[in-house]
Amino acid sequence: MTATTSAAHPRFAAALDALGLAELHPRVRRFPDAVRTAAEAAAAIGCDPSRICKSLIFAADGVPVLVLMDGASRVDVELVRRHLGAHKVTRAAADVVRETTGYAIGGVPPFGHRTRTRVLADRNLLAHDVVWAAAGTPHTVFPMTPEALVEHAGADIVDVRERTA
Questions:
Q1: d(C-alpha 35, C-alpha 1), whole Å
Q2: pTM
Q3: What is the CA radius of gyration of the chain?
Q4: pLDDT tens track for 29-87
Q5: Which of 1, 54, 89, 108 is 20 to 30 A off residue 100, Cα-Cα?
């Protein structure tokens, strides 16, 4: 299957090809209803939300940074701030997400972005044999081992998951 026939967003399909991951094209799943949230994606796939890889853009002192987090957890922005040595970390605005990644919120994949950003991956992702991530649209996802996902995203493994009481 070529990038032009992939269910993935064209930019993400091209990224798969460029990374030598064309074998993933047939594994991209497209759903009729949007799967913008981890809960929606997990329900559509039929997996636990922790097997969903959320791709979240934050602004660390105004500089975009991508955080990859399992779908059952929340990012602790204070831990992100400390890890980066930033003064302030906030969720990036929708226009910044689109400008940085080339994708809309709810469809941001873990790699294949318009610009190169720093990537942090929470260690909890590695607890699974396979995780599912957005394939560039709010209707598409793809499976990958978390180790391969972290490698292709160029992510640093960190502990930035919010602890629950």
A1: 24
A2: 0.93
A3: 15
A4: 999 998 989 999 999 999 999 999 999 999 999 999 999 999 999 999 999 999 999 99
A5: 1
How many Å separate Cα 75 from the centre of its chain? 13
Tokens of 45: 């796939």
Identify any residues that bridge with 63 across adjacent strands, giving them in sequence order: 60
Integer distance in angstroms from the first to the last C-alpha of the chain?
47
Size (the chain), residues? 165
Report pLDDT digits (tens) over 73-127.
Answer: 999 999 999 999 999 999 999 999 999 999 999 999 999 999 999 999 999 999 9
Q: Pull the structure tokens for residue 15.
A: 């990224």
Distance, in Å, from the CA atom of 75 to the CA atom of 163, rounded to the nearest integer, reads 9
* Residue 146 near residue 122 (C-beta atoms within 8 A): no
Question: Which among 103, 110, 109, 112 has a CA at the least distance from the CA of 14?
Answer: 112
CA distances from 33 to 20, 30, 56, 114, 139 (A): 29, 9, 21, 26, 6
CA–CA gap between residue 141 and residue 58 (Å, rounded): 21
- Tokens standing for residue 61: 């002192």
How many other C-beta atoms can be found within 10 angstroms of the C-beta atom of residue 67?
Answer: 25
